[in-house]
């Protein structure tokens, strides 16, 4: 990986920003997994429950993938004698807040969106969120051409995002 080569831009050109971004994505995916796990326990529709369970497992997997990649970038930066904290002042702020606050890294209340919104509105919210995530991850996939490992991570995650968009869209069409 060219940690500081001229081909990368923005967040992906600075190891500290890359690490912070990957860790932020990991927190967001983990928060999503917890909420979708809760929704799976509450839904009475067995088919929807199966989709939620797979979706939550995917989100847990994505959180692990982002965490592992952040660790690898940190190690690469250290072995290349690049300070992984250099430029960290420009790293993206965590979308979440402190543990004492009542919101997750998506900015949603931790109480459980399924209970708060109801089944149809929850699936609609998931559908919109997954479409946005797929769009965002496609953009990051393109921006990481200089880093095949990170680009492959986004390619793998995009496969799952397309499934999430598909099942939520199908449920909405059925309703």
Summarize the structure.
The chain is mostly helical and 175 residues long. It is 68% helix and 0% strand. α1 packs antiparallel against α2 (46-79) and α4 (119-143) runs antiparallel to α5.
Total helices: the number is: 5
Summarize the biggest pleated sheet.
none
Number of strands: 0
* Average pLDDT over all residues: 84
Low-confidence stretches: 1-6, 86-100
Structural class per helix/strand content? mainly alpha
Proportion of strand residues: under 5%
- The SSE string, one letter per element, is HHHHH
How many whole angstroms does the radius of gyration measure? 17 Å
- Tell me roughly what share of residues is in helical segments: 55-70%
Q: What's the oligomerization state? A: single chain
**So what's the overall shape?**
elongated
Terminal-residue CA separation: 47 Å
Description:
With 175 residues, this protein is an all-alpha fold. The chain is 68% helix and 0% strand. It has 5 helices and no strands. It has helices spanning 15-42, 46-79, 113-117, 119-143, 148-174. Helix 2 (46-79) packs antiparallel against helix 5 (148-174). The model is unreliable at 1-6 and 86-100 (pLDDT under 50).
């Amino acid at each position: 990986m060219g940690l500081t080569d001229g081909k990368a831009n923005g967040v992906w050109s600075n190891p500290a920003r890359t690490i912070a971004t990957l860790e932020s994505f990991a927190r967001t995916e983990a928060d999503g997994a917890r909420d979708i796990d809760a929704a799976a326990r509450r839904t009475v529709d067995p088919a929807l429950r199966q989709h939620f369970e797979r979706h939550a497992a995917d989100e847990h997997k994505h959180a692990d993938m982002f965490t592992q990649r952040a660790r690898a970038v940190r190690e690469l930066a250290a072995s290349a004698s690049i300070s992984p904290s250099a430029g960290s002042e420009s790293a993206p702020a965590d979308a979440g807040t402190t543990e004492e606050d009542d919101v997750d890294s998506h900015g949603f209340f931790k109480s459980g969106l399924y209970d708060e919104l109801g089944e149809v509105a929850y699936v609609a919210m998931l559908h919109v969120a997954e479409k946005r995530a797929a769009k965002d991850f496609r953009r990051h996939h393109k921006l990481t051409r200089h880093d095949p490992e990170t680009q492959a991570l986004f390619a793998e995650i995009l496969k799952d995002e397309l499934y999430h968009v598909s099942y939520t869209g199908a449920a909405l069409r059925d309703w």
